[in-house]
Design a protein that fits this description.
74 residues; mainly alpha; 2 helices
Length: 74
Amino acid sequence: MKKVNIYRFLYAVSALLVLGFAIHTIVDGCRYNSMLTSFPFYAFVLVHAIEYLVPSIIVFIVALIVKKKFASKK
């Protein structure tokens, strides 16, 4: 893989993490039963946000930095 295309890969990883968050939250929403679970649903969403969205934001910021670094070399 060329060094120039690394930022595209990082953008794809970031998008896949956001997609994973959406799918995991939808699946948990379908399986959630408030009578059987002592936690409110927003607690599950908050945990998934920490698992998926925080790394996605970090990877996205790294992709922006890498893109800017390779753009300045040209």
